[in-house]
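Example for reference:
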Amino acid sequence: MRLVLRIAVFTLPIITLIFSAKFHVASTGSQSSRAQRLLLQTATEADTVPPHLLLRPPPPPPPPHSDSARPCEPLSARAVRETAEANAHGVTFVTFANAAQLDFALNWHQHLSLLGLGRSALLGATDEATNRGLSAAGARCFPLKSSIGADEAKWGSPGFSHMGRTKALLVRTLLELNATLLFADVDVVFLRDPLPYLGRQLAAHAQLLFHTDGFGSSPEAIAAQPPGLETPSFGITPEMNTGLFLMAPAAAALAAAWCAALDADGAFSNWKNDQQALNQLLRRGLVAPPASDAPKLMAAYG
């Protein structure tokens, strides 16, 4: 049977309003002090984002035996269900990190918590140091098997390729556990609650929603009220970004195909990456439905 998924693209105004991946890291040499001094550079959002979310470093993690500390537990259907039930739209927020990214993970979780969404989040820890740090901060975390290592996974490094494979495997696992997941890389920050926006798209039966690597939005998308989805002709041309996306359980077969593509020899050769592999899959049979009550949703992976 031919599987067809309903896909759409976030508009740039929504990305600017709700998310930011623009950071200035004032490093003093240690991971803990770097975490405390992680500052958002959000000049373009200054008029639209609540002041308490701007230029505010996350607090230091609580001591290991504090009341808020909770041990990381294996990923399970129960964890998915409980995080989804913690919000009205049934969405689980997901990321993962290694020791080099722990300060970003703490910042990621802290901003969700400030929005009242901390209980809807699951964070994977790929090593023991990250496990301890997330647990001490009270994040709902789980051990995540990966070959990333503890160092920074720079572009083109072996760690970077393992990070892409880890992401695809994690997404596949979560979809198999019936999660509707919003995956956001650990260097993304949530400035506003995205669930009202996402809820409207899920109610229109979207199964895949992506941020893209494009710059700018169509005039129609900028003028739309309430903010909606990008027009297909404008939004689908740039590469869809695997650092911020929503997938519903219907996309489980796509996630499995993504994992298989990344297992292939040469999946990361010549500067290729997990994002390119997923884009190749998504663009199979990519068409706009001839008539729909949600005309900005396209058919993909047919």
